[in-house]
Amino acid sequence: MPPTSRRGLLFGTAAVSAGALLTACTSNEPKNAAPAAGNAPAADDKPGRPVTIGFAGPQADHGWLNAINQNAKRRAEKYSEVTLEITEGSNDTAAQIGQIQTLINKKVDVLVVLPADGKALTQVGLQAMRAGIPVINLDRVFASPQAYRCWIGGDNYGMGLNAGRYIGEQLKGKPNAKVVELAGLDNLELTKQRTQGFDDALRNYPNITKVARQAAEFTVESGQAKMAQLLQAQQRFDALWNHDDDQGVGALRAIQQAGRDDFLMVGGAGAKSAMDAIKADDGVLKATVLYPPTMAASAIDLARALGQKKGVGGMSELEIPASITLYSAVVTKDNVDEYLPTGFS
User: pTM higher than 0.85 for the full model?
Assistant: First the structure.
């Protein structure tokens, strides 16, 4: 696990689609499904027993990270019986451990934790579980399954796979097609997973060759600098996959400055700015592959269900699942209106 840093926290390791998951976890829409087996209670909007949820998330210094915190807060506000004890947010491992221990000492009913470093925070997850406080491990996974009751997070391999499939389908009729990749931080496992998924997808398209790859740092500045290098080195290519929409803002600046419009671009994560550009359809950005920050809202739903000893609406089991992996949907101009409400700033 790399040393803790702002960029090191951006995403976790890794199916249910984001929209389907929200419906399944919250049952906010009228129920049409048959009653759960054994008359199991299901999570719903009707107020239940009071639940205090402790939330220890990241420092909101990146669009996706800020969206994680906002999704958690907004979801908790939907429930009159839910009290959310939220920490200030920290990307420092020692500080976050202290914040979680404070929540344990307050005897919250359930904990939701997006750890700065999954491995380093495993012991405090174990501490909470041993104290009888169930833990929802959000995105960056703890080193031991005994440190959490349920894991919910994104699918990094799936992001790369779906990006590669989309680009492959767009270029499958083009002989000797060339693609380039603007990755994230190479010392993060998630970056390796996204690249592996992308490469695996491209193997199904023998007419396509990946001719270049640059690793950026999930920032606007790094995206602009690394994209400028790619453009200078590659005079012709047909598609670009960029791992992160925040660094994609910089990448688009470099593309505009170079006056290039001879390729299509696919982003990653699902920022509102990316979706707006896709809807306008007046530039190179044609799609983005989701890594939904709505997972934080779903984590609150799961925590509420645990605290009230309910199951998950739409499922027959008495208990919530042990793990939930979100689906990395591809957003294009054909479906962007559906996903715009989930776009983050």
Answer: no
